[in-house]
């Protein structure tokens, strides 16, 4: 035996690969001296990890500054019309969206870790805000931003990023598609100028279409979709002229929202100046409060109408939104960060902490809830952003819009904002998982389909909850029914039953393992030793240990041997030395192992006969 294991150790050493230390040493592996040449990279200090700007500002260069300037200005041209549109979707006036864009852009510069991520109003946050704050005072929206930021901040502080792992990819995709469809359907009424409360029937919708609004809305939508295609134009000839032209078309494409809104606002302004506001045939946005946001505490207590709202009254009005909004925001933000992270590992907890600070700070400036946006992050990436410093330039542009342009926001046609929203979210709808999941994984198919349907029927928060609960049930079923391979094997002259669980087993799966062992013993009439492969077991709880002791006793009563193969050394003390029913052996099994087991079993039948 000793010679055999000595040969195996030499073979490992000849390979000259760094090996991990294994206190068990169950496979004869040894720690090699070469492993000392490999060390983990030095971690940043706690201050640099939390105030993340300290980790990159020291190496900030002019080239990076120019790239960030271009990306920041480009993003500013995108975020302004989007913020106005998302505020309208949430049932708020335009300035609330811009307040959120300003604070999100500035705060992320100091704490954010991914240069491409753009924090501000999104269709997702706007839809949830509308759902929980519809027909309620605007102060409740500000408190929602504060509470969402507080929950996100606490999740970051307590490093609860693992919670996002319980939301699988099919649920995320279905949730995103469902949200996009809801936003598009909700905006159809404004796009066509339909002013009917609730969900109109097709006949009501058709009879209440306002033609001027419909013309403006549909025209804007078509123009936006056409301008979007400019970025994909390719020229057969590759020279300096075509390169510059392609760059110009790309800038026009990504600035399409701002261009469309500006042109229509200018037309409306000139129209009113030459005649009157009553002469405008299409609906315009509401008048916006001019000026910059004021720093003040969130309104935890206020009066509205004939009612006084206290803090607990506000929380009661928000209900499940206090949890749903921050969870969804974290889910969206981490998903975006994962999509754009390149050379470094994503610090999900830091992203949650940063998002929390953005919402907390925003609530002191009357902002609505925010999170990252895929469309804006993609624009930043395409613009060549290098560091989060681009947010400074974006913030300056938004700040300028708040201080200069707010009086002109009232000239923006409502249907044009609906067109901006629909053009932004329609490409987020993805039905490709339908066929792919049906072919490859039925469980994920039902998760995706069910989540999408429930989102459309019962609301996005119920759809998300459905997807999470359904997949948790799948996880529990898998833990309760672990896959086990049962085979009859032979080691020289000894035949034995080999039972190998294909995953770690927790207390919920103990009964399933007991059933497999009993079934195998009954099938083979207790004629052979039973070997349980423990190589995949990482943790033994009390229920599992009791099960193994009980099974060993049952097998021993049938004059047969129960062997635990490849059990970690640190787990062996969990089984009393006085228990002669359980035998330990390493991998690979040998005849000597069975002979030793037979002697320990004190004559429970000859295995070698």
Automatic annotation (TrEMBL):
One Gene Ontology CC term in the entry: membrane
GO biological process, one term: transmembrane transport
Pfam families tied to this protein: Sulfate_transp (PF00916)
Transmembrane helix among keywords: yes
SLC26A/SulP transporter domain span: 67-449
Compartment annotation: Membrane
Keyword match Transmembrane helix: yes
Bilayer disposition of the protein: Multi-pass membrane protein
Region forming the signal peptide: none
Principal localisation: membrane
Transmembrane segment boundaries: 69-89, 96-118, 138-162, 209-227, 248-272, 318-341, 353-375, 390-409, 416-435, 447-477
Keywords linked to the UniProt accession: Membrane, Transmembrane, Transmembrane helix
InterPro entries: SLC26A/SulP_dom, SLC26A/SulP_fam
Protein's name according to its UniProt entry: Sulfate transporter family protein
């Amino acid at each position: 035996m000793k010679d055999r294991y000595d040969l195996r150790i030499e073979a490992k050493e000849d390979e000259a690969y760094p090996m991990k230390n294994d206190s068990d040493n169950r496979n004869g592996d040894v720690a090699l001296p070469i492993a000392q040449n490999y060390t983990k990279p030095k971690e940043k200090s706690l201050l640099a990890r939390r105030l993340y700007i300290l980790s990159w500002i020291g190496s900030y260069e002019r080239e990076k500054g120019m790239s960030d300037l271009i990306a920041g200005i480009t993003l500013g041209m995108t975020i302004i019309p989007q913020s106005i549109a998302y505020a309208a979707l949430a049932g708020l006036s335009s300035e609330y969206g811009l307040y959120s864009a300003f604070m999100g852009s500035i705060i992320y510069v100091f704490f954010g870790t991914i240069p491409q991520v753009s924090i501000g109003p999104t269709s997702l946050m706007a839809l949830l805000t509308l759902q929980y704050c519809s027909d309620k005072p605007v102060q409740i929206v500000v408190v929602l931003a504060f509470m969402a930021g507080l929950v996100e901040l606490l999740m970051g502080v307590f490093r609860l990023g693992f919670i996002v792992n319980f939301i699988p990819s099919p649920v995320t995709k279905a949730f995103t598609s469902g949200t996009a469809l809801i936003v598009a359907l909700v905006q159809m009424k404004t796009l066509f100028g339909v002013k009917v409360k609730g969900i109109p029937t097709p006949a009501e919708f058709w009879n209440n279409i306002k033609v001027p609004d419909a013309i403006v809305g549909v025209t804007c939508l078509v123009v936006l979709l056409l301008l979007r295609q400019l970025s994909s134009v390719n020229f057969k000839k590759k020279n300096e002229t075509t390169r510059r032209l392609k760059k110009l078309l790309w800038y026009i494409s990504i600035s399409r929202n701002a261009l469309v809104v500006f042109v229509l606002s200018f037309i409306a302004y000139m129209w009113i100046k030459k005649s009157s506001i009553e002469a405008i045939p299409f609906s315009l946005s509401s008048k916006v409060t001019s000026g910059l946001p004021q720093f003040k505490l969130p309104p935890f207590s206020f009066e509205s109408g004939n009612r006084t709202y206290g803090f607990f009254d506000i929380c009661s009005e928000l209900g499940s939104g206090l949890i749903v909004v921050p969870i969804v925001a974290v889910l969206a933000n981490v998903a975006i960060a994962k999509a754009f992270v390149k050379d470094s590992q994503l610090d999900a907890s830091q992203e949650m902490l940063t998002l929390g600070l953005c919402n907390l700070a925003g609530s002191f400036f009357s902002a609505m809830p925010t999170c990252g946006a895929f469309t804006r992050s993609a624009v930043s990436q395409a613009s060549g952003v290098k560091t989060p410093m681009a947010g400074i330039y974006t913030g300056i542009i938004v700040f300028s819009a708040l201080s200069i342009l707010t009086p002109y926001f009232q000239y923006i046609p409502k249907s044009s904002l609906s067109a901006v929203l629909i053009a932004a979210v329609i490409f987020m709808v993805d039905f490709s998982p339908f066929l792919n999941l049906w072919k490859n994984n039925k469980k994920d198919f039902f998760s995706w389909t069910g989540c999408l349907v429930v989102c459309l029927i019962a609301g996005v928060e119920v759809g998300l909850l459905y997807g999470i609960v359904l997949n948790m049930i799948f996880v529990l079923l898998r833990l309760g029914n672990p896959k086990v391979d049962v085979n009859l094997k032979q080691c020289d002259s000894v035949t034995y039953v080999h039972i190998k669980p294909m995953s770690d087993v927790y207390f919920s799966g103990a009964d399933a393992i007991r059933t497999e062992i009993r079934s195998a013993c009954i099938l083979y009439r207790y004629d052979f030793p039973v070997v349980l492969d423990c190589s995949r077991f990482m943790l033994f709880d009390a229920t599992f240990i009791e099960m193994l002791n009980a099974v060993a006793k049952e097998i021993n009563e049938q004059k047969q041997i129960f062997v635990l193969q490849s059990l970690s050394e640190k787990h062996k003390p969990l089984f009393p030395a006085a228990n002669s029913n359980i035998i330990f052996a390493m991998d690979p099994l040998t005849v000597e192992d069975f002979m030793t087991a037979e002697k320990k079993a004190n004559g429970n039948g000859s295995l070698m006969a």
